[in-house]
Amino acid sequence: MQLARMTAVLGGVLALGLAASAATAQDTAAAPTTITITLSEFKFAPTEIDLDHGQAYVLHIVNDGKKSHDLRADAFFRSVTLASDSAGAVKNGAVELTEG
């Protein structure tokens, strides 16, 4: 399975590279699509994302809140393959970010 590139945990910003499914050799030549997810007190935006089978993505997760926050998505993280440099950022189906 080919994976998107990822990583940067800088304060409350994290970029996660993932593949929604197995990618073909042709798919891997295309640049990953970046999706920004913003976390804040008791909400996140967008509330729903649509991913295409075989497309590589970079989830750019930003904590815009004044406290630490996490993005918990157990089923989601079990169904995608993370880039090797991104895998360590997901623990027990969640990504945690400090304020800012």
Report what the structure shows.
11% of the residues lie in helices and 38% in strands. By secondary structure, it is mainly beta. It has one domain. A hairpin with a 2-residue loop joins strand 3 and strand 4. It is globular. The termini are far apart. Residues 1-11 and 22-27 have low confidence and may be disordered.
Summarize it.
The chain has 100 residues and is mainly beta.
- Count the DSSP helices: 2
Succession of helices and strands: EEHEEEEHEE
Structure classification: mainly beta
Calculate Rg over CA atoms: 13 Å
Query: Major sheet, described briefly?
Result: 6 strands, mixed
Distance between the termini: 33 Å
Mean pLDDT: 77
Tally of strands: 8
Unreliable stretches, pLDDT < 50, 5 or more residues?
1-11, 22-27
Strand content range: 35-45%
Basic shape:
globular
Helical residue percent band: 10-25%
Number of domains: 1
SSE map:
Layout (H helix, E strand, L loop, with lengths): L8 E2 L2 E7 L5 H5 L3 E8 L2 E3 L10 E8 L5 E4 L1 H6 L1 E2 L11 E4 L3
Parallel strand pairs: 3-5
Antiparallel strand pairs: 1-2, 2-5, 2-7, 3-4, 6-8
Any descriptors?
2 helices, disordered N terminus, 100 residues, single chain, mainly beta, two-stranded antiparallel ribbon
